C-alpha cells in the first residue's frame, strides 16, 4: 500500500487562486504552495499580491486583474498560464458582498456581485478546462457560503450569487468529471477576513455567531487548510459536485 500522506502532495502541480491578495484566498495560496504546488495568485491589488509572492518565493507568481470585468477573463486565463504553464488546480476565492438591503439593491451592485461571485468562476474555468482535459486531471474548487442555503440580512445579491455557486459546482461536476476534472466547493462559516470585517467589528455579533456553531468558536484561517488540500489533491479523486461546509457546525444547528 502506498503512503496515504502522498495523496495530499501537490509537487509538480500548478494552481491558480483568485482573491489571493487577502483572507481565505491568500490562505489558500499559502497552503497550496506549502503542499508543493506552484501558485499563481490573482487579485486587483498588485501590492498585496507582491507581498504574498515575496514571502512565498520561487513557487509564486502574480497576475493583477479585475475578475468582475467579463471581457477581461480570456486575457486573465492566458496570463495565469504564462509563469508555470496551464493550471491543474483552480481555486475561486475572489468575492464581494455589497451588503445592500433588498429595498436598496442597485443595478450596479447586483451586476458586480454576480459577475465576480458567479460568472467569473464559470468563465475562467471554461477557459482553463481544455488544458485539464488534455492531461486527464484537474481540480476546481469554488467558494460557497453560509448564504448558499441561508438568508442573511443585507445579503440578497450575495446570497443569490452564492446559491448559484452551489448549483454551478454540481453542473461543473456533471460536465467535466468524466475528463478527470473534479469540481467541488468550500462553504466557509465566519472567518476573520476583509469581507467579514463588519461582522467581527461587532464583538456581540461575533460572539453570537460563535455560539451558533457546534464547536463554539468562529473560524481561524488555518481551519481552511485541510479541507482545501483534500479537494485540490488526489485524496478527493472520487469526490465531485459537493459543497463541503467548513463552518464549525453552524449549518448543523
Automatic annotation (TrEMBL):
Recorded GO molecular functions are: oxidoreductase activity, acting on the CH-OH group of donors, NAD or NADP as acceptor
Species this protein is from: Jannaschia faecimaris
* One of the Pfam families matching this protein, by short name: adh_short_C2
Query: Single Gene Ontology BP term?
Result: fatty acid elongation
Protein's recorded name: Gluconate 5-dehydrogenase
Entry's transmembrane regions: none
Q: Which domain of life is it from?
A: Bacteria
Of which family is this protein a member?
A: Belongs to the short-chain dehydrogenases/reductases (SDR) family.
Amino acid at each position: 500500500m502506498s503512503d496515504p500522506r502522498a495523496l495530499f502532495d501537490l509537487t509538480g502541480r500548478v494552481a491558480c487562486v483568485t482573491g489571493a491578495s487577502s483572507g481565505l484566498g491568500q490562505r489558500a495560496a499559502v497552503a497550496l504552495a506549502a503542499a508543493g504546488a506552484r501558485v499563481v495568485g490573482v487579485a486587483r491589488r498588485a501590492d498585496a499580491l507582491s507581498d504574498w509572492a515575496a514571502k512565498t518565493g520561487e513557487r509564486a507568481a502574480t497576475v493583477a486583474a479585475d475578475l468582475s470585468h467579463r471581457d477581461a477573463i480570456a486575457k486573465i486565463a492566458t496570463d495565469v498560464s504564462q509563469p508555470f504553464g496551464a493550471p491543474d488546480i483552480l481555486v475561486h476565492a475572489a468575492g464581494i458582498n455589497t451588503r445592500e438591503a433588498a429595498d436598496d439593491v442597485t443595478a450596479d451592485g447586483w451586476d458586480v456581485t454576480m459577475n465576480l461571485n458567479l460568472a467569473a468562476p464559470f468563465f475562467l474555468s471554461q477557459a482553463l478546462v481544455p488544458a485539464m482535459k488534455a492531461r486527464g486531471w484537474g481540480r476546481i474548487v469554488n467558494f460557497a457560503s453560509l448564504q448558499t442555503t441561508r438568508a442573511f440580512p443585507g445579503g440578497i445579491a450575495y446570497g443569490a450569487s452564492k446559491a448559484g455557486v452551489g448549483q454551478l459546482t454540481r453542473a461543473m461536476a456533471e460536465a467535466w468529471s468524466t475528463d478527470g476534472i473534479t469540481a467541488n466547493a468550500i462553504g466557509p462559516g465566519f472567518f476573520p477576513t476583509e469581507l467579514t470585517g463588519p461582522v467581527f467589528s461587532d464583538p456581540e455579533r461575533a460572539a453570537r455567531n460563535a455560539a451558533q456553531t457546534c464547536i463554539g468558536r468562529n473560524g481561524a484561517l488555518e481551519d481552511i487548510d485541510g479541507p482545501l488540500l483534500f479537494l485540490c489533491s488526489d485524496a478527493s479523486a472520487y469526490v465531485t459536485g459537493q459543497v463541503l461546509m467548513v463552518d464549525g457546525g453552524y449549518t448543523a444547528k
